[in-house]
UniProtKB/TrEMBL annotation:
<dbReference type="InterPro" id="IPR003593">
    <property type="entry name" value="AAA+_ATPase"/>
</dbReference>
<dbReference type="Pfam" id="PF00005">
    <property type="entry name" value="ABC_tran"/>
</dbReference>
<dbReference type="InterPro" id="IPR017871">
    <property type="entry name" value="ABC_transporter-like_CS"/>
</dbReference>
<dbReference type="GO" id="GO:0005524">
    <property type="term" value="F:ATP binding"/>
</dbReference>
<dbReference type="InterPro" id="IPR027417">
    <property type="entry name" value="P-loop_NTPase"/>
</dbReference>
<protein>
    <submittedName>
        <fullName>ATP-binding cassette domain-containing protein</fullName>
    </submittedName>
</protein>
<dbReference type="GO" id="GO:0016887">
    <property type="term" value="F:ATP hydrolysis activity"/>
</dbReference>
<keyword id="KW-0067">ATP-binding</keyword>
<keyword id="KW-0813">Transport</keyword>
<dbReference type="InterPro" id="IPR003439">
    <property type="entry name" value="ABC_transporter-like_ATP-bd"/>
</dbReference>
<keyword id="KW-0547">Nucleotide-binding</keyword>
<dbReference type="InterPro" id="IPR050763">
    <property type="entry name" value="ABC_transporter_ATP-binding"/>
</dbReference>
<feature type="domain" description="ABC transporter">
    <location>
        <begin position="13"/>
        <end position="247"/>
    </location>
</feature>
């Protein structure tokens, strides 16, 4: 697949003041799913869009894909304003949905050909065979889609999202409920596409995937942007560490600086959780030495993305 051309600026997607309010129904009040969202996705990045259920992720993605009408705001995809150039902006993005929306009576080859036709891709420019090989469906190319396994159907969804060679690929919970083999295949393909210049937007509940794959991450909750930062900077927000020390046979926990939570783990090691900005690691080691405890081995456990995510989204209900 040829590398996508530049969008004309550093942003593959730019969202300004985006709102979406669903009309009242069955006596319920109108629901505002997205509330003044401002967001930019750098071209060529792997960008994580994270948030708890009901945060507004799917609504935002559906607006980008042209499946849901926004209430207000501005959306620009690959330099095309969605209101001024709706066809070009829609052609610049491909979406692999979470739902298995596949015609059971079409073969994978036929599904890709139909999808290419819907996007107006001329036959001479189609790359159906390459796509089937990319997602590992060459042998199943002529089988009815209803005979495919769940994992193979997800592979077909990825291929369908790529038929028109989009500059931006959105993966909506791509590995939910899939096996390890499919997950590895998917991430290999994602890395390959990204290396060729494609911008990837990923939503997932597997936070370790986002931590490993994404250059930059945005976290939204209740339709609002909580933050958008490089992954390394985001992980640095969790001001907590755990010093794990092997002090030999289990003994009483020594007196430690105020604010340190200590416990013996099942393997006998002493785990001390603390806030590095307030308590230097040296103070913990000095406390162990003052108690005449041997330090046979030690390790520092840093927080992961899940810790940061929980901190940011654990807000009281309004």
């Amino acid at each position: 697949m040829p590398a996508p051309q530049s969008p004309g600026n550093a942003d593959a997607i730019r969202i300004v003041g985006l709102t979406k309010t669903y009309a009242a129904s069955n006596g319920a009040a109108p629901k505002q799913a997205v509330k003044g969202l401002d967001l930019t996705v750098p071209a060529g990045s792997v960008f994580g869009l994270l948030g708890p259920n009901g945060a507004g992720k799917s609504t935002t993605i559906n607006i980008l894909a042209g499946l849901v009408r926004k209430t207000s705001g501005k959306v620009t995809i690959w330099g095309f304003d969605q209101d001024i150039n709706p066809r070009q902006s829609r052609a610049a993005i491909g979406v692999m949905p979470q739902e298995l929306n596949i015609d059971p009576f079409l073969s994978p080859r036929a599904s890709l050909e139909v999808q290419a036709g819907l996007y107006g891709v001329p036959k001479r420019e189609r790359w159906t065979d390459e796509l089937l090989e990319l997602v590992g469906l060459t042998e199943q190319a002529e089988s009815y889609s209803r005979h495919l396994s769940g994992g193979m159907k997800r592979r077909l969804l990825l291929a369908k999202a790529l038929v028109h060679r989009p500059q931006v690929l959105v993966l909506d919970e791509p590995t939910a409920g899939v096996d390890i083999q499919l997950r590895d295949m998917l991430w290999r393909n994602v890395r390959k596409l990204n290396e060729q210049g494609m911008t990837i937007i990923l939503t997932t509940h597997y936070l370790e995937e986002a931590e490993e794959m994404c250059d930059r991450i945005a976290i939204i909750d209740r339709g609002e942007l909580l933050l958008c930062e490089d992954t390394a900077a985001l992980l640095g927000r969790a001001d907590s560490k755990t010093l794990v020390v092997d002090t030999g046979p289990a003994t009483a926990i020594p007196t430690l600086p105020e604010g340190v939570h200590a416990q013996r783990r099942d393997d006998g090691r002493l785990a001390m959780s603390y806030t590095p900005s307030r308590i230097p690691t040296d103070d913990l080691i000095d406390a162990l030495r003052a108690a005449d405890l041997p330090i046979r081995d030690l390790a520092v456990e840093a927080p992961d993305l899940e810790d940061v995510f929980v901190q940011l989204t654990s807000r009281p209900t309004r």
